[in-house]
């Protein structure tokens, strides 16, 4: 659905994007992550046909963004990181305005707008003025605005920025629904855990370069980001910790009153072998569990740190 090849963008002599390539399949939720100034917004605005690349190509649904901008616009809903809302309008009027801009006839809009407001949990604000809405509500209204023409692709630039935890959860739930509807979603953030639960794949960009791309688990494996395995036993933590230190792929072992924490770089097959080994030592295992994968660890491992120039 999205195909980017050797895309570069210069602002004067400054290279904001350096030869990036990227493929996103239909129905994928793709998390675009990188520190401030890495080039996420630049990439997204090129995809949204609002900025021109210096070289390279970007296609949405098979249409090249510079050659067929109108075709691309029909297929995308774009939510920029800074958006203006028209303060003098009520939520419903705001959506009518955008719906009319896309040429949707009024009778169709009358049916569509209540459905959109329902989707973004704003039905009770239909007649409220836009400027009376909270930041989270405005963000959700903007998302509804992106959906008026039922686009296949959603390009969302930091949709959860500045939201409190509850508002973020609401945004996340809406995105899950959109994924179920078959939308292809590209969503940026510099806060990785924010994306953890909703993305299928990530691309990590730093200083205008794509430095890692793929399924979160694959990237973790490829970069050999160590897992932490937590093991509880019937009071044999100390002897277990002692034995584990000599096992392959174990880099460190900590033991405390909650159990044994093993920093481990083996793959799944090797991990299952480790469990078999522990049981063969006659240690009564109560639980053997991988600590939840942490996108933050991946991010710190692959970016060198610090904001881009
Ligand atoms: N119109 C412009 N003129 C000159 N430089 C620009 C322009 N727009 C962006 N840049 C520069 O290009 C680089 C990439 O910016 P971009 O906004 O794409 O980053 P980003 O990853 O979206 O960052 P953030 O998370 O802070 O939004 C930055 O160094 C920025 O200062």
Automatic annotation (TrEMBL):
This is ABC transporter ATP-binding protein. Belongs to the ABC transporter superfamily. It comes from Paenibacillus lemnae. InterPro entries: AAA+_ATPase, ABC_transporter-like_ATP-bd, DrrA1/2-like_C, P-loop_NTPase. Keywords: ATP-binding, Nucleotide-binding, Transport. Residues 2-232 form the ABC transporter domain. One of its GO terms (molecular function) is ATP hydrolysis activity.
